[in-house]
Write a structure and sequence with these properties.
The protein is an alpha/beta fold and 134 residues long. Helix content is 45%, strand content 12%.
């Protein structure tokens, strides 16, 4: 098989008997030990634990997300700033047009971006974190 293989996880949003599905850290470890190409997480998982995005990227794994929040252009923009490589969406045309102006940095994510993007990302992550807790 020449295709890419990813581990699908709920990102720790629910508790399962299979501990590999209970956190992004476990998903990352499984992807590494299994020689997979990356992780696909429910988007709330990365918003609840944004530091894991860097850890996944530093492990040379790809990270994609799915979930209802991926139909919100601002949530997709935040993920772009975080370094998420792809999003699975229902509103393909709307999200595609809203992210058309985004250009990847030299290494993707925040590298090569201005300091204001880091401030914006910090603010937006805090806001999203508060919203999804309620």
């Amino acid at each position: 098989m020449n295709g890419q293989v990813y581990f699908l996880t709920n990102g720790g949003n629910e508790t399962y008997d299979d501990v590999r599905m209970n956190s992004l850290e476990e998903a990352k470890n499984l992807a590494i030990s299994g020689g997979l190409d990356g992780v696909v997480s429910e988007v709330k998982g990365i918003f609840r634990n944004p530091s894991v995005v860097r850890e996944i990227k530093e492990s040379n794994l790809s990270l994609l997300t799915y979930g209802k929040l991926n139909n919100v252009p601002e949530a997709v923009h935040v993920q772009y700033l975080m370094g998420v490589e792809g999003v699975i969406v229902d509103l393909v045309e709307e999200i595609t047009s809203s992210v058309a102006g985004l250009k990847p940095g030299l290494e993707g994510g925040l590298q090569g971006k201005e300091k204001t993007d880091k401030i914006e990302l910090s603010f937006l992550l805090n806001l999203i974190s508060q919203v999804i807790q309620h």
